[in-house]
Specification:
Elements: H1 9-18, E1 22-25, H2 32-41, E2 45-50, H3 54-59, H4 65-79, E3 85-88, H5 93-96, E4 102-103, E5 124-127, H6 136-145, E6 152-155, H7 161-170, E7 177-180, H8 186-194, E8 198-201, H9 210-217, E9 222-225, H10 230-234, E10 238-241, H11 246-257, H12 263-272, H13 275-290
Parallel strand pairs: 1-2, 2-3, 3-4, 5-6, 5-8, 6-7, 8-9, 9-10
Length: about 300
């Protein structure tokens, strides 16, 4: 379901026109060595922004992890070999053999803010890609294990859309699971978060966890894995569970289900993560890493 860019000629031409001081290389699969070389020819420093992880990518592929992980690590280490720094929200040593120099920061769009006027339903919400690596089937399993018969509303699209319903039937909870279309409007998505009793991000391989981050900012109670970096940013608004443990996931959802929203904490989260504040902090990090003379803004 992802688009794969072809060719880097237009990107290189854009870099030549911009003459940047720093290039943030966000895609390790889009001609990274050639793009890095072009940036260096222009006198720019290159920062590899490590969004994904080998475990996340391997979990999304139909081949066994022991076959794919070494290949993915080899590719990433080659892609990042000539960069001056690495930016990431997750540990990078195991994947690329170096530690991140800079923190990958995330901001919140204006739509994601507390909405105390929105009536809170009784359902649990999953919003995102319906794919194996996202843990959506584990969430269905948690519904079957839960001591509370909460409805599960699944919003999104992806290759597991039909498998979700089939698995719900096998686990005996088909009557509690409903599928809904992907929501691409931020205001509507924020209202969808706020109207839920709990928003769950069940994946254990999240390399940040934007759904939990945005849902918490919208005033929702959130459940996410202890491995999700966004859990630290969300703080007390999140209930966490251990990886590969559907029983712990079910218990975390049940605990969140009985907890009232904390709109004051949600407002504080929004204030800490406005885009102007995030970008100013990122510029400060780049200036500290490369020196003020190398980063003009």
């Amino acid at each position: 379901g992802y688009r794969v860019p072809v060719g880097v000629g237009a990107l290189k031409n854009r870099l030549r026109a911009l003459e940047p001081d720093v290039v943030l290389l966000h895609d390790p699969f889009w001609g990274p060595l050639g793009v890095t070389q072009t940036a260096h020819e222009l006198g720019a420093r290159v920062v590899a922004v490590h969004h994904g992880s080998v475990d996340l990518t391997a979990a999304s592929l139909p081949l066994p992890g022991p076959c794919t992980r070494p290949l993915l690590r080899r590719w990433l280490r080659r892609a990042y070999r000539d960069v001056e720094a690495v930016m990431s929200a997750v540990p990078t040593w195991r994947d690329i053999g170096v530690r991140a120099d800079l923190a990958l920061r995330f901001g919140l769009e204006d739509a994601f803010r507390p909405r105390p006027e929105t009536a809170r339903g009784d359902h649990v919400l999953y919003a995102g890609r319906l794919a194996l690596e996202k843990g959506v089937l584990r969430l269905v399993d948690a519904a079957a294990r839960s001591s509370i018969p909460w409805p599960l509303r699944v919003v999104g699209t992806g290759p597991l859309r039909e498998a979700v319903l089939a698995y719900a039937r096998r686990r005996g909870v088909a009557g509690r699971v409903t599928l809904h279309p992907f929501v691409d409007d931020r205001e509507e998505l924020a209202r969808t978060y706020a109207a839920s009793r709990v928003v769950v991000m069940p994946g254990e391989h999240e390399t940040f966890g934007l759904v939990a981050f945005e849902a918490a900012a919208s005033g929702a109670r959130v459940v996410c894995c202890t491995t999700a970096p966004s859990a630290g940013a969300i703080g007390p608004l999140a209930h966490t569970f251990g990886p590969r443990d559907p029983g712990d996931l079910a218990a975390a959802i049940d605990a969140a289900h009985g907890t009232a929203p904390d709109h004051a904490a949600a407002r504080a989260l929004v204030e800490r993560h406005t885009w102007p504040a995030v970008l100013a902090a990122e510029l400060s990090d780049l200036t500290g890493r490369f020196g003020a003379s190398a980063v003009s803004g």
